[in-house]
Amino acid sequence: MTTVERVQPPPTAIRPKVVARAGLYAVLAANGGVVTVFFFQAGLGSSTLSAIGRLAGLYGALLMAFQLLLVARLPWLDHRIGMDRLTSWHRWVGFGLLWTLLSHAVFIILGYAQPASISFVDELVELATTVEGVLRAVVALTLIIVIGAVSARFARRRLAYETWHFIHLYTYVAVVLAFTHQVAVGTTFTTSSAATAYWWVLWGAALGSVFLGRLVLPVWRNLRHQLRVSAVVPESADVVSIYITGRDLDRLPARAGQFFLWRFLTQDRWWQANPFSLSAAPDGRTLRLTAKTAGDGTAALRHLRVGTRVFAEGPYGAFTTLHRTRPDTLLVAGGVGITPIRALLEELYGHGVLIYRVATDRDAVLLDELRELAAARGAELHVITGPATPDKLAPQELARLVPDVADRDVFVCGPPGMTGAVLRTLRDLGVPKQQIHAERFSLAG
């Protein structure tokens, strides 16, 4: 095994995550202010209910554009906040968007129905059949309601990922329909040339971000680097490492702890993308992922042929040394969650402690590498085996292994249950929140 010695910069005074989060909040607040100003410039109209509906619709349009930004996978945001957190924010903003648009529809219809003394349903039918763009808005709202329903926790657990993802793609159809509705009947959109220019720029920036982050950048990077499988190495009966080479990999901005969405372009698997972390720090020549068999897709990795073309989206994730705040580090891994932790160990400086939690010694992936690397880096390695209960990483046990844990950055990666338990232990031990960095196993590979 070859390791690359790296000189690490000192911890930054301002945390990158805080800067990115504050930037997103500021962008949303500033645009909310601009939308409010344009709304009042357009006038409230004769109906209070319709005015409330119009304002709700404008805020809904703003939230929809913000939604697109959150899932655009722009590197600057992703590397500072992380795809898992951005996706979580996208989910909660989505529920806010749903209620905002429902309020828009209800108040607008009531505002028109009340003076005409007709029923809510009759007014809805009247608007949909006589006013340009309203029928498109009804279809868009219906799609958003369906997407919101399947995104609820109880439904999400019962749907296959592929089914959920396919339904979720209709969000883009809803966005286009909502935008054309706004262009057709939005009084604020056409009140002034400034308002019209603002909304065109807003939607152009939102859709352009998605186009850039989800299509242009991945395609450009793959055309540039021409990734191929260079070796397939079984690590155990159910674990395999895939080595990947390509052109100019020293220019690929990947860091230890990050992951890619990998597509291996074989006849039966080219359509399937799986998130796997790098299990070794990028050295400018080779990328390595290590995966455990968990289904047909990962089982097929063992049978990949050398030379197979690879399409990789990424790198993604904020689980990197960019966010460290202390010179010394504690790394905690569970199961195959060791893969990004192993890569981080290769890149870290200062004194490190690695705790690897597995059921049995046979479940310890890459253990020989870890021992060699820990010795080379002057780090402590603790392999903890046994059943999940009693908790061998409870506060008392962790404090015994790492007495100065509160003075270290802590990186945690593993199954959700283990990760949650370790995070609770760290809080009980008084480790400051800004020193704790967690990667959920579902994105860790």
UniProtKB/TrEMBL annotation:
Pfam families, alphabetized: Ferric_reduct (PF01794), NAD_binding_1 (PF00175)
Membrane topology: Multi-pass membrane protein
Protein's recorded name: Oxidoreductase
The entry's keywords: 2Fe-2S, FAD, Flavoprotein, Iron, Iron-sulfur, Membrane, Metal-binding, Oxidoreductase, Transmembrane, Transmembrane helix
Domain FAD-binding FR-type: 222-322
GO molecular function: 2 iron, 2 sulfur cluster binding; flavin adenine dinucleotide binding; metal ion binding; oxidoreductase activity
Subcellular location: Membrane
Transmembrane segment boundaries: 22-40, 52-71, 92-113, 133-155, 167-185, 197-217
Organism field: Streptomyces albiflavescens
Domain of life: Bacteria
Cofactor dependency: FAD
Annotated GO CC locations: membrane
